[in-house]
């Protein structure tokens, strides 16, 4: 016997109490802002080390991605994400976590069939869409130049 819509709504409200939205938004803002501040500090550090602007633009996201991957591997990222919510997911660090997490989860199945097969579970569609979209947009641009 299935519950009615009204009974089901009451059951879901009881099972999932409302979250403190102001607290969650504040923590997401502060932690996301802290991650962005780290990015700004990295820009300053790399520029002071003598890197060119184009090199800095590559080094900062690479550093943030690497740090997020290391934090995920050490098991530090999930507790931070539970505390900060969307604050860790919005910047590039969330994408790095989404790539590394499936790989770590399936490490027990081996490096080829576990890590290798699962590392692109989340990132694969994003990379594939980006690649295909860039080819399509480039082709459209090329056609428009011919006209």
Structure, described:
With 147 residues, the protein is mostly helical. The protein has a domain at 22-105. It is 81% helix and 0% strand. It contains 8 helices and no strands. The chain has helices at residues 5-15, 21-48, 53-74, 77-84, 86-89, 92-105, 111-118, 123-146. Helix 2 packs across helix 3 (53-74), helix 3 (53-74) packs across helix 6 and helix 6 (92-105) packs antiparallel against helix 7. The longest helix is centred in the N-terminal third of the chain and has 28 residues, at 21-48.
Gist of the model:
The chain is mainly alpha-helical and 147 residues long. It has helices spanning 5-15, 21-48, 53-74, 77-84, 86-89, 92-105, 111-118, 123-146.
Strand content: under 5%
Number of helices: 8
Order of helices and strands: HHHHHHHH
Largest sheet: none
Shape: extended
Task: Assign the structural class, choosing from mainly alpha, mainly beta, alpha/beta, alpha+beta, or little secondary structure.
Answer: mainly alpha
Number of DSSP-assigned strands: 0
Poorly predicted regions are: none
């Amino acid at each position: 016997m299935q519950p009615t819509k009204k009974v089901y709504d009451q059951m879901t409200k009881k099972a999932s109490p409302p979250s403190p939205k102001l607290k969650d938004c504040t923590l997401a803002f502060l932690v996301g802002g802290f991650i962005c501040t780290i990015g700004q500090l990295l820009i300053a550090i790399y520029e002071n080390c003598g890197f060119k602007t184009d090199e800095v633009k590559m080094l900062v996201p690479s550093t943030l991605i690497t740090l997020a991957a290391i934090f995920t591997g050490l098991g530090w990222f999930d507790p931070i994400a539970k505390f900060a919510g969307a604050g860790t997911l919005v910047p590039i660090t969330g994408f790095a976590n989404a790539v590394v997490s499936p790989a770590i989860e399936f490490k027990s199945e081996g490096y080829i069939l576990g890590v290798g097969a699962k590392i692109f579970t989340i990132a694969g569609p994003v990379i594939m869409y980006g690649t295909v979209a860039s080819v399509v947009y480039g082709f459209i641009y090329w056609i428009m130049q011919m006209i």
